[in-house]
């Protein structure tokens, strides 16, 4: 039943790895953005936007300068204590061009 759900209903393919998925995301981002565009991204401070920012940064940085991704984090006060600061610190350690408001 689990096999049927994963492979027949959800369309999962054998040989799936996280590394392959990460490469697919990089290729997609590079194709969609191209070589000369700049991306503006709002980072909410949560996991989803932080992972998206990290993927965008990595995909756009390959062979180019880090200024192609302009990320803004707006600390709205609705996150867990210190969560926004932790996300900002983590992304800045990756070299992401991140502005905090």
Automatic annotation (TrEMBL):
Gene3D superfamilies linked: HUPs (3.40.50.620)
Record keywords: ATP-binding, GMP biosynthesis, Ligase, Nucleotide-binding, Purine biosynthesis
UniProt-annotated binding residues for ATP: 44-50
Boundaries of every GMPS ATP-PPase domain copy: 16-101
Pfam families: NAD_synthase
Protein name: GMPS ATP-PPase domain-containing protein
Organism: Daphnia magna
């Amino acid at each position: 039943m689990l096999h049927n759900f994963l492979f027949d209903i959800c369309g999962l393919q054998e040989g799936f790895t996280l590394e392959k998925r990460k490469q697919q995301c990089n290729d997609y981002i590079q194709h969609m953005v191209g070589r000369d565009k700049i991306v503006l991204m709002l980072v909410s401070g949560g996991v989803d936007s932080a992972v998206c920012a990290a993927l965008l940064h990595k995909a756009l940085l390959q062979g180019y300068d880090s200024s192609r991704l302009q990320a803004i984090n707006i600390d709205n006060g609705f996150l867990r204590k210190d969560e926004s600061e932790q996300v900002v610190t983590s992304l800045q350690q990756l070299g992401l061009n991140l502005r905090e408001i």
